[in-house]
Amino acid sequence: MKVLIGPPSSTTPVHSTMVKGRDKCGFPWERLTGEPLVYASMGTILNGQVDVFRTIVAAVAKNKNLQLVLSIGDQIDPKRIGPAPSNAIIVKRAPQLELLKRATVCITHAGLNTVLESLAQGVPQLAIPITYDQPGVAARIAHKKTGVVTSLDKSTADHLASLLNEVLTDPTYRENARKLQKAIAEANGLSVAADLIEESLGVSRKISAAAA
Amino acid sequence: MEAILRPLPQHCPGSWIAVWAAITLALPSKEASYPSLSAKHRKILRPLRSSATSGCLAFRNNAKTEMEIKKRKNIYETGFICPDLPGHLNPMSSLALQLRARNHEVVFTLFVRCACRATVCSWSREGSHQRKPTRNEQKAGEDALQFSVRTLLTQTEAILKSLPAIVEANGIDALIIDTVQFYAELGAMQLGYAICARCKLQCTWTTLATLHFACMAGLMRQLLPLWPETEKVSQSGLTVLSKRQRRHQGTCREHRTKNRLERSLLHSFPLASNYPSAPSFRL
Fold first, then answer.
1. What residues in A contact B176, CB-CB < 8 Å?
2. How confident is the model over B55-75, as pLDDT tens digits?
3. Which chain A residue's Cα is nearest to B85?
4. ipTM
5. Do A21 and B97 touch (CB under 8 A)?
6. Distance CA A105, CA A110 (A)
7. CA A167 to CA A147: how far, in whole Å?
8. Could you tell me the domains of chain A?
9. Cβ contact (<8 Å) for A2 and B4?
10. Distance CA A52, CA A47 (A)
11. CB-CB under 8 Å, B86 with A22
């Protein structure tokens, strides 16, 4: 049996507690300037490549009217990325959900978790898939026009800056992201997932409700 | 997210065969692009495998007494197997919360090398035995491949050895396994458990194995002889999987798989077994 349930981290009633349950990581909120925010993360496993981060920083640096928050993970030292431009905040870990709420664009490796969290906030994406299922996720981003997709091989600073500009200037991407945001909210995926698990265990919903 | 609920057939050995054969068959037909395992590497990998040090710890909500649990009805113990990585742990803990809200018991089992205690909800986390994480970002190519295989072997071995005891001790009724630790399904299969795989896209176990094992398959094929108990079933399963592979040949897109493989080798250090543990948190 296969059922689409949407992201478990959607805006379901449990969502607020889920945010509370996440790692508390400090973030220099005072450094946010209010300029359009570009949030960038390449996930938690495939984040060992410095060059990708350097390219992202260089791409956003080309547009001084943007601010970049780059989450690089624990694998590399931020110093290895080089001097951060004035409009960039580089951190090892970031409160992703909170930042996505403020973000204008999300640069992602098209990991499903980040993409779905981004869509749950109605944020369009610039996807740079690397491996695993990421090309498939990125293909869906392109198909639904919730963002743009490029390959790692083509990811130069100029190219990324151009794509970033496209996402920022074309309202279609944000509109489509918001459509999916609505769909995700309506899907109530977390509850459906729990229903499916209970069903597979043979729990009667009526009995379960009574027990609760 | 797409959930695939896949009750296991009673005849579990068949599933074993299928999975292990899938590992060997995940290799694209032309093996020239993969480094073969030299005798030197075998010598290196053999002791590493035999001295597997992965920690396998299960944690449960500690507030319930046995009597309280017995009084409840329709309450099940669900085990989550998940890497200690935020991008994976966050959605899993979210689902765990939802089950907790329905009065089910939830146990998290984090198969990581760091012998640390993790906690979600009211689980307490203790980092008393944490090891200093190894920096692996420099690994690429064959080094990354070997690192991945070593990690996979130690984790799989640890799961197969320790999961039965964890399940028995906690009375786990069902296991929910994160996509990236798909090999933990072997442990569930070993126990004959129903599996609820948290799955991305339209991946069946075969495609999962193909995607995730693609970067390891060449080496894995060489390593299988080191694992006598699996070699036999793997070999006997080849015929079944060959037929299956032929059937799906039209949709295999071998060149794309190969590209992904190369990218994995060049741009990642997958499955970091010494990944540092996340700090404690409470929901």
1. 197
2. 333 333 434 454 455 445 567
3. A44
4. 0.77
5. yes
6. 13
7. 7
8. 31-187 (3.40.50.2000)
9. yes
10. 9
11. yes
